[in-house]
Amino acid sequence: MSSAAEQEAVREPGAAAGSRAVRGRPAAVWPGSPTPLGARFRVGPDGVGGTNFALWAGGSDSVELCLFDADGTEHRLALTELTHEIRHGFVPGVRPGQRYGYRVHGRWDPWTGARWNPAKLLLDPYARAVDGTFTLPPEVYGHVRDWPQQQVADTVRDERDSAPYVPKGVVVHDDDDWAEDHRPKTPWADSVIYELHVRGFTQRHPGVPEELRGTYAGLAHPAAVGHLLRLGVTAVELLPVHQFAHEDHLLRRGLRNYWGYNSIGYFAPHADYSASGTAGGQVGEFKRMVRALHDAGIEVILDVVYNHTAEAGELGPMLSLRGIDNRGYYRLQSDARRYADYTGCGNTLHVVQPHVLRLITDSLRYWVTEMGVDGFRFDLAAALARSMHDVDMLSPFLAVIAQDPVLRRVKLIAEPWDVGSGGYQVGAFPPLWTEWNDRYRDAVRDFWRGALPDVRDLGYRLTGSSDLYAWGGRRPYASVNFVTAHDGFTLRDLVSYEQKHNEANGEGNRDGTNDNRAWNCGAEGESEDPAVNALRRRQLRNLLTTLLLSTGVPMLVAGDEMGRTQGGNNNAYCQDNETGWLDWSLLEQPGWRELTELTARLLRLRRTHPVLRRRAFFSGLPQAADGLRDLAWFTPRGTEMTEGDWYAPAATVGLFLSGRDIPGRDARGEQITDDSFLAILHAGHRPAGFRLPGPPWAQGYELVLDTSREDQTAAPGTVHPGDGTLPVPARSVLLLRVEE
What we know:
Layout: H1 4-9, E1 38-43, E2 49-56, E3 62-68, E4 74-78, E5 81-83, E6 86-92, E7 99-105, E8 108-109, E9 114-115, E10 130-131, E11 168-170, E12 193-196, H2 198-202, H3 216-220, H4 222-231, E13 235-238, E14 242-244, H5 248-252, E15 263-269, H6 281-295, E16 299-304, H7 321-329, H8 354-369, E17 375-378, H9 381-384, H10 396-403, E18 411-414, E19 433-437, H11 438-448, H12 456-462, H13 466-469, E20 479-481, H14 491-494, H15 530-549, E21 553-557, H16 592-608, E22 631-634, H17 643-646, E23 652-657, E24 662-665, E25 671-672, E26 677-682, E27 688-691, E28 700-706, E29 719-721, E30 725-728, E31 732-739
Helix pairs in contact: 11-12, 15-16
């Protein structure tokens, strides 16, 4: 990388030092280099400063580089050099801040999948910053969008120029040095993930300056970071921050894509989240955000969408890949006019193709090495693992990740399904990968609403899901446990609504899942009944406590710890407003403030006790000299559960976690030991008694936590003798520390 000083020192034909972009008519294009792909400012021959442009363009006939002045004047330069299907050239005098795009020439033959149209300005897939917003007027479509016969509209080429209507790529200077950055490198077993939206987390935060709200700089502000530290989370998982576009059907309804699962630029931080402008400043702002989080000991995980792009199906816009080489980038059906759609979004990237695989892995490495991130959550990861058609755990994508010296060392999280045949792959991803475990979500929701037919599944979910992950050297932290995610009800809505209320999305309440596994505690929606509201808060405490005491990696959703509501909307993907944003005033309200304090207390408990952060699965066998098993399950009668108990309906279970001999050693090779705990989960609507296991399990039990209590600022601390019967309040979790 060249320094800022070097940038100013290089000689530039016909331009003064410090010029931010080419002036007047650009100089002739020099041959340049086919690597790296994208636009990179550097020192060229004879010490001349300029930018190297390189674009993989598959079967195209020719490529024009288009440079834009500040007033929109376009200068077209032919990239005549061709190396291994890469068009490239070095343009002297082009400096950081220059806006650019491409026009790619070739056949228009949609029946064979060929959709080249040089009238459309295309975004560089490797652009590291994007200036402008995609608004999707008719001019940005490669076909005549309003053709009278819509069934063949995608076959009629539109000759209107799209350049005035589409964002441009921006040449960015490599001016950051990560030598002083200290990555937290939190082990998986010690991780607690906090899923948040960059805009939504800070848009209403009173401690963040107004001009920084909703931005990367806002998330880096001490007021925002301070909340994360007070909670005790170890990583933020950011909803998509790759440059994305808003879908046409949303724009027509006056809405926007809020979540961002509609990527179009895999190297560019989304420009709308920038407080530093969109001429490249968003890149440095993102890096400073990462550094601020790292300084606080918090890792940054990106939710990434490499399975499809914002270009949608054959009736979608022509923004980038479709116009560069439609057949090379997308999976097409046997009728090549149509797209194979394993994502539900109109198209699927053809990851088996080497250049597509290179695009994805180059992007991943860029975000790790140049942007500083610590890991990725892959949206619809099963679509990436497909070979030609079927999901294949030996697919090129998974094989490349496994051997890549950069990517195999970062956190990798799969959303282990897609919408295609055979796409549900929970438990099937190979070692190195962790997975969103929706079976955990469903079992815990069903238990607390009284809908589990028996407790077999719950037992597996609370203890790391060994039935799914105990193979191939995988560990309990292969399971990312969650009760809620961005997609679905918030935690508060989960106990306040049984039906979705998505009318504001403008889709007739047809969008969003109907399988909510929710219980509204007796009233649909917000209630004035104190008894209903008290029960709802108790259920929230039960769900959070269950999640944070379970073996595996817990994932919280931003705002769940303070009672955030979306008014029953379980698909708020287009609600870039107060429905989707966090309401920080909740922290000033009794009840919600206590819920936040309970969350922080549970995370401190988890951080303090390694028995809650196991690095190996429970065996259910004796591990210590006293012959006690590392895991035992008890009925309310105080007896160990039998085979028949697992197959019977139950509202109460006792989980004994032994800390006497935890598998593994500490950094000095010493045996890890901890307190032992008994957790009692009681989903019944009436109080119950639980006979506490006596010797050899315990002499007595100290009550550490009782979710029936509204105020959790102080530990209950009461000691109960072994073999005694403990009263258990209705719908509650009791956590007891063993006294030996």
